[in-house]
Amino acid sequence: MEVTERIAALRASMDERGIDAYIVPTADYHQSEYVGAHFMARVFLTGFTGSAGTAVVTKKGAYLWTDGRYFLQAARELQGTGIELMKSGEEGVPELDEFLEKELGEGAVIGFDGRTVGIKQGKEYEKIAKKKNGAIKYQEDLMDEIWESRPALSAEPAFSLPLCHAGESTASKLERIRRKMEEQQANALLLTGLDDIGWMLNVRGRDVEYFPLLLSYAIVKMDGVELYVDANKLDSDMKKRFTEDCIQVYDYNSIYERTKKFTKEERVWLDENQVNYALFRNLPSEVSVVISENPLILMKAMKNDVEVDNIRTAHIKDGVAHTKFMYWLKKNIGKMPISELGASEKLEELRREQGDFISPSFGPICAYKEHAAIVHYSSTPETNVELKPEGLFLTDTGGNYYQGSTDITRTVVLGPITEEERAHFTTVVCSMLNLADVVFLHGVTGMNLDYAAREPFWRQHLNYNHGTGHGVGYLGNIHELPQRFMWKFPASGSVPALEKNMVITDEPGIYIENSHGIRIENELLVCEDEKNEYGQFMRFEHLTFVPIDLDAINPELMTEKEKTLLNAYHKQVYEKISPYLDEEEREWLKEYTRSCK
Description:
The chain is of the alpha+beta class. It contains 19 helices and 28 strands.
């Protein structure tokens, strides 16, 4: 079935139910950023494979909203489908809500699967329908009707994260959570975030490709926990541990009937950025509701000391694998066939050799030359190209190890490059190092510090159309809230102060359409620095240790401070990684971490 046929089939289902506009977001029932195969309805409908986007089908048209990371990719993948690309944030492009309000007529009905839409967005659709004297229909999954070969929900088994990796017991976490519930005078906390539940229970799953997450819901009460999950995924040891912690297991989908049974004596705490609209509307009207960010988000982001030690270990493993990959690439380019996909497979192979490797931590981005200008490019058999001894090759990849998750980007010179590419590469490197070097007072947020990364770009009237950095979960979401580097106020959620033991990426880049893309990414650990009469000062520690390709650096464009920062970083790379390399690799690393003068 072609995309045009799928849209026609959806319109037929809409007509049967009197729906004027049907919305298909990129979402599962948990408002996850990345979703399992069963939930890729927007991909099925539109053919656009990026990780973020919302499709809208009306009686006359079909539209897709996505952000700047995916403009080039979406334009390519939507060709010939009749779907109009709506570039979010671009001048003259209405946002989805604005579009619906303008396009829909009197008495219009807006349809969507309420399980895949968050509370805030669901309320906005309500308001729009009310202005039109229309209605919303949120209880039917029309995509399920037209998606005949829809993948089933994952049935993969869960696995426990032992204390040597988790660093804190479930009982201790529940005690902390309940203290927060008491502060809110709540006696029930409704959780739907997969990484939150996995963190709380010290359990991980295999229900989302690349992300070790378990499809589940939970209700934390003052005397126990209700866990809604496919019990077949749990082993006997897990069930025993759950019993000891007063955790009762119920069928995954039964949460929807359960939420209808809350009583007026209960005060339910929920996070409207995570809980879906259908669950929210199932709550009886007499139930008292506390709407606030759930407390696990900040707890989870502030890693404990055991997690931090493990994360450092994971990054050494990853640094060894990626350094070996750079050596292999430099030595073999032009001597043997290497494609984007082949290079990606080699890098994963080297990661698997490091021990305790679980899986890649997200879909790999391995992009040669102009492909790297597509921020979230993903090579496929159709787009795969052979690497040649010329130009730049960008890899944005990561690994899940039992010791933690990694996320690293390096851009490597494969042969002759232009002076513009060299200048851009140097700017990106200086940007990354400048941000990593800042010292700041406690209370500062990532919005305060983003300028340290963008200043080298803005001085040249350049910019990049994505955030500078995101939090990283411990075997959870690779994009973890709430910490982030960004210069614009977020559309949802908060940007809190950077706290000790938060992990955050530092990944500036530059993207020149049809020419090249460059990004350099390290993960940083937030650390306490000196404390004096002015307060607690903070700093960053590099977690990522992989050489930055000196073949692309123009030292004449760097200040003495920037050279000092690069040399100090490369000294650490050599000290930490060289012991794990063979003699030839060690000599190569010595050359590629030499002093930049």
